[in-house]
């Protein structure tokens, strides 16, 4: 379990220091208790907040009992933090009866209020999974009084620290973090829109120059999220792909679809079918398939960034595919699906963000053949705020449902996906809010889908 905080009395200080300029190492006391009043303290210690990591604190506590709820807080001098709640994972071999979690993505600060996070905090969950676009790098101002700080595209370490700190000032996001342990991965906007490995989306930026920016972005990301020491960046490199086990019931494989990928190519480019192209990089791809093949969990959940199912937008005989997600990396997707079949991987569920819409789909070994074998299910979750209020249907949704028989559902409202897993099935409930451009929206369940144990693919609940 990782406990996180950052010392930032002035979160938006222009130098990115959070108001800690000139401060050296600061000892931070931390406490864990079984009750919110801390009458039964079970662990405590001191962790040093250093300027090298933005005076952030990442405490790894490994002395707690498995599968238990705990409360935690921090102290510095006469200051005391609000109380957070967390829960340890069950033991690796535990026979867990039920697992409830939610997944979210894409929380553009100027685009809308984080009402979905406020409702999320009231759910009965063991964890929250964030699938990327935790921040946005641009200089948007919007029209809601939530303009980005600094008021420009961020490129330096100070810039990224200020942007992360601004997002962290949102009370609904704070409430969501304080309610549950979080599992996080990134997409592109934590650095730059549509970047690929060392390649900027701007042709005039040299890879070496872009890696300087990536190093700054990765460090600020680490400083502001509950990640282990194994993820401390080494310059422009940072390992974020990992596995998390919830007893014998579920194993989460958290992927990194940005840091190692091949560059995007044009829709009609013959390079799109180059078998050497990769979404994950060769090492992560091997690690993924080896892990899936060795898994003994009932449910194998891939937590990743971009749409995996074929997403054709041409209802006719042609193909109009997006090139930044798995549709632009078809050989890599085929290797994954073939590897899943060859290793007899069962109960594969993919959870996805990025697209600012909700969708549920069967994952077919050959999307060109509707009767092809179904190898898994994909649940695409909408954004927290990106894209504004949204709508029940848009042109993309009409095209997707007309052109892709493996897609079962589409919606473009904002919200999150609540998932409930037991030995018999996996259920995904799409929780949506009707608006984000003003506060106070209610939440409702728009649709629910299930995957039955041993029967790959999506069914209406």
TrEMBL record:
EC code(s) of this entry: 3.1.3.1
Transmembrane residue ranges: none
Domain Phospholipase D N-terminal as annotated: residue spans: 1-88
InterPro entries: Metallo-depent_PP-like (IPR029052), PhoD-like_MPP (IPR018946), PhoD-like_sf (IPR038607), PhoD_N (IPR032093), Phospholipid_Metab_Enz (IPR052900)
Coiled-coil segments: none
Gene Ontology molecular function: alkaline phosphatase activity
Enzyme class, UniProt record, top EC level: hydrolase
Keyword Hydrolase annotated: yes
Residue ranges of domain PhoD-like phosphatase metallophosphatase in the record: 101-430
Keyword line: Hydrolase
Pfam families assigned to the protein according to its UniProt record, in alphabetical order: PhoD (PF09423), PhoD_N (PF16655)
Protein name: Alkaline phosphatase D
